[in-house]
Amino acid sequence: AQKITQTQPGMFVQEKEAVTLDCTYDTSDQSYGLFWYKQPSSGEMIFLIYQGSYDEQNATEGRYSLNFQKARKSANLVISASQLGDSAMYFCAMRERRNTGFQKLVFGTGTRLLVSP
Amino acid sequence: GAVVSQHPSRVICKSGTSVKIECRSLDFQATTMFWYRQFPKQSLMLMATSNEGSKATYEQGVEKDKFLINHASLTLSTLTVTSAHPEDSSFYICSARDSWAVGNTEAFFGQGTRLTVV
């Protein structure tokens, strides 16, 4: 079974600094997808970035980039130039392959990021 | 980006009553939607996969008769918590994927519903 591990329950960063949120995964599949979502206190899940297992380049979306190290099975999220609005829970997730239908997402336990002025 | 609307955002109900939560894809068709449950300070756990025009697929340990799922159209799935009890109090959130999307299999989430059973 696939598993996502986020070892940082909480992280602090100062405004305008960069921060890295760790995510490691375990899977026996050759084809898989990795996602990062942001969950503010309102509860909604906001998609940030996606990395496919066969993508040769690290994914980037604005201030978000994914440091994908396939051999180490890690998919860390890097947020550059942190903003106060970045304070939220961040979840790493993996697409679990199934025989039929859309594959479900398996989530990590999350990291709470707090950005200070 | 694609929008998924979930309603209501908050609901308080009495123990023993039923509560219906709606999940709508506003600008795309979704043959498959997903229902998650999230306890405070915990991660999201998949409850069931909702398939348009067919029965939902429930995850192990989820009571089918307690959490009724109906996916009557390509844009609407509903979750009904029947005979709710205080232990059903939780944050429920749905997600959907554009049926015609290729490549990036991004799933879009609704705003979530915070259910409190008193």
What would your notes on this structure say?
The complex is a heterodimer of chains A (117) and B (118). Chain A is mainly β and 117 residues long. In chain A, 0% of the residues lie in helices and 52% in strands. In chain A, the strands form three sheets. In chain A, strands 2, 5, 6, 10, 11 and 12 form a six-stranded mixed β-sheet that branches. In chain A, strands 3-9-8-7 form a four-stranded antiparallel β-sheet, with no helix packed on it. In chain A, strands 1-4 form a two-stranded antiparallel sheet. Chain A is globular and about 40 Å long. The termini of chain A are far apart. In chain A, 36% of the residues are buried. The mean pLDDT of chain A is 92. The termini of chain B are far apart. Chain B contains no helices and eleven strands. In chain B, the strands form two sheets. In chain B, strands 2, 4, 5, 6, 9, 10 and 11 form a seven-stranded mixed β-sheet that branches. Chain B has strands at 4-7, 10-13, 19-25, 32-38, 44-51, 57-58, 67-73, 76-81, 90-96, 108-109, 113-117. The interface between A and B is medium-sized, with 22 and 25 residues.
